[in-house]
Amino acid sequence: MKSLFTHYGLEDIQPKAVDVILPSSKVDVEMAIFDIKPGIYSLLTSPSLMQDENLNFPDNNPFGVPSDTP
Description:
alpha+beta, two-stranded antiparallel ribbon
């Protein structure tokens, strides 16, 4: 897995385990967290995802008002 993460530049997206104390029960649990910035960056810079047929902009304007039709 490590070589895949390195090959595709996904090292920053790997989950990290943190200890959290639940406020209502005071139980200590381990929770997996992710840094959202590298994940979003990875999606927005993916050549396979960022293609015209995958994007839905009204009148080809990414800042245009969305239409009411689904």
